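Narrative summary of target 7.
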Amino acid sequence: MSSRPVPQGGDGQRLFVGGAWTEPDGGYYEVTDPATEETVGGAPEASREQALAACAAAREAFGPWSRTAPEERAAILGRAADIIRGQLEPYAALAQAETGATTGTARGMQVGVAGARFRRYARVEPAEWAIAPQINEAGPMGRAGVMGALAVRQPVGVVACVTSYNNPWANPAGKIAPALAMGNTVVVKPAPQDPLSVYRMAEALEAAGVPRGVVNVVSGRAVAVGEAVVESPDVDMVSFTGSTAVGQRIGEVCGRGMKRQLMELGGKGAALVFDDADLGSAVAGIGTTFSFYSGQICTAPTRVLAQRGVYGRLVEQLAAYAGRLKVGDPRGRDTVVGPVISAAHRDRVESYVELGRKEGATVLGGDGAGHGLPSRGFYVGPTLLADCTNDMRVAREEIFGPVVVVIPFDEEDEGVALANDSDYGLIDYVWSGDVARAFRVARQLRAGGVGVNTVARNMEAPFGGFKKSGVGRDVGSYALHAYSEVQAIVWPG
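Modeled conformation, tokenized:
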């Protein structure tokens, strides 16, 4: 480990800027456990000047790091993966305390996925590929000849990684690891609700041997911190995961500065369930919305479009599924649904449920498997809104909680039209016993991904959205493209 100042200060976590653990100019603020409302620790409040200093440090480190051999960069990422896996339990305990995730989710889907993503980008892949030679006839451009060409992936430069609160491990790792693998340097601005886990990730990278300034982390509740990072002239690219509204504002800044951008924004995933579907599979898949991150996930199938012949049974089975889920302390062995991230977000989700009631929806569930909700913590019971129409606000806006709306349809074309009648297009789903129809429908959906009879993902498949769900694609090899520029080199053969 480094002999530099320890990451923790007297009042809380220090910033990580230019390879040094730095006292924040704005002091510290409390990070709250959403399950208990107790304080997890003190998070640093960076000043605008410190945010800009982090960007400048990344700019200074970019030249040497970009020239480092890919094998050396990969070795550092591999060591970081080993450190993260070796610290799985304490890292998962912190993630659980910050986010309210259940124990299985914190270990497997937060810290576990982060370690896997660093390991994935610890393998060296070709960064160049040959292009078929071109035969040029003699003309104004010169004599006849054969022109060879090579396409080369080059790093973009300094990447600002602005991450979401729902997964403070996997989400930052999915940005940092491929960006570093391609030779970029990064400035990470974590979500204010749960930044402490991201600093543990920076510690792991420091211990793995990442050079000074290659990775920087600055946090804060003030909007000015994120704005400074995004606007900095030292930043060449912004990778953002979060709401569409914030993404639009970031996109405006990127447009003015011609910065590259990768945006993974909101979702209102449509799940088309046809009359011939395996209802057990559909209910189990859609039911993950209630439990997985307590519905705080943009890929969730939150807008269920049920063909008329199966509508009644599907509503009945989804309501029963929601009613069986134990809501409570995420550390409890039998807990399935933990809290949402904050009191403000709990109130927001509950207001949508009430809005749905006023709009004419039938509200089912919401009482925590009949046991009531815990008196402390920010809990929302799994809730089904049946008898909805696609023009209701609850069917059109992202609620980001354990709430599912159900809308009936008659014919296939109507179902497709309803699915596509949305501002969002991240991931949709199709359940049908007719595989040919399922794939036919999938190709008609305006979404970046489609799950056919499953909510599982292939972690090498491209990930990103249509419409207001984002710009660009990442995951697997697609992330290496996302965090690089393509350069053409041409020569006479």
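The radius of gyration is 24 Å.
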